[in-house]
Amino acid sequence: MHRYQKPWRGAWYYVRRVPTAFAHLDKRNPVRVSANIAVADDPEGWRAARVIDRLDKETEAYWRGLLEGHAVEAQRRYDAARTRARALGFDYMPAMELAAKPIGDLLDRAEVLRPRDAAGSGPEIAAVLGGEDRPDFRLSTLFGEYERLSRASLKEKSEDQLRKWRNPKKRAVANLMTVIGDKRLSEITRNDALDFQAWWQDRIVGEGREIETANKDIGHINRMLRTLERWHRLGLPPVFSELRIEGGRVAQRQAYDAGYVRDRLFAPGALDGLNEEARAVIWLVAETGLRLSEACNLTSETIHLDEPVPYVAVRPDGRQMKTDQSAREIPLLGGALAAAKRFPEGFPRYRHRADALSALVNKYLDTAGLRPSKGHTLYSLRHTFEDRLTAVGAPEKVMAALMGHKYIRPKYGAGPSLELKAEWVGRIVYQVPHDTAS
């Protein structure tokens, strides 16, 4: 049975007390909702338990909605008061803070209201005399407000990029709530932050979790709190600053040895267990150094086969570019050219689904014994491409232009031509029959 499941008047009911965090918004106490299933028809309560589980989720969503709506309205009133206060020549201060100022400051503010005939205006009185409290967000609303404040920087991200941006931050908030509950942001203390750090230390030692995973959580929370503090002047102390756990390191992806790729990965039949689109993308990454997301999102408009030098153009196309240098043209030779000819309109199966392709290919390579170490992944082929260019002495400017990296010296001219890039890529192309990609 569900923990909030109770028999009442011959039927099964959902019965739950309103949590303290929502009690000021929901005056029902307890919440009591019928599952519309008689106890006589379901004496063990199994059917009713499923209904009550749904009712519980709906009720919690309702409470969160109340809290978020309340916070948004409080924020709207507070922002309006700040704007009015500035228009009248004052910095906005909540009444409690204003009360601690010298009496002259209060008299100056009161004096401003009289000649403007503002004495009867509730909003102007609130603005000048601090009638609106600073909004007091809860931890459960932290990410939503952070996302709202970040909306300008997110507008060019694709849905997949947004998912990757959102998930680690939402996970960090959920982890913190596991440790300290759904506190108001103003109530979070340095001790809470230290408890969170200790919680992660226990997981690192006891569960083998990565130190960098913990540091990312701490960093996300710190950044979100700083952003809300900067925008809303909440008076939040930097309780999550300088809490990184020492000893962490970012795992470095291994590069495949070029000979291993030629003799093992691209051996006849080695990739036959993968579908054609997956095999073609592997060839593209290996022969062009494309990022996996760049390869997966090519289209008929970015694959140019009827040119003196066939090439692909990396463009935003509904996504935010990783760097300003990511937009570039890369020549198609060898297996990459064969792959593009086989799929001249791109790879619809994996468009905006690079993660799914990566998981599929890495699992296949693992099963087929084609990963010399756990550090070798599909993405390693991009690093191998760069190593191969280095081995033949390609100029740094050409390598940067092919890889989409920033060139460290001042930029002059238009950069390496497509023909020049093709000349250097031609020196490292795998000598493997082109029909292997098809």
TrEMBL record:
An annotated Gene Ontology molecular function: DNA binding
PROSITE patterns, alphabetized: TYR_RECOMBINASE
Top-level division of the source organism's lineage: Bacteria
One GO biological process term: DNA integration
Keyword Transmembrane part of the UniProt annotation: no
Protein name, entry field: Tyrosine-type recombinase/integrase
Pfam family, one: Phage_integrase
PANTHER family reported in the protein's UniProt record: PHAGE INTEGRASE-RELATED, PROPHAGE INTEGRASE INTD-RELATED
The keyword Cytoplasm belongs to this UniProt entry's keyword annotation: no
The entry's keywords: DNA integration, DNA recombination
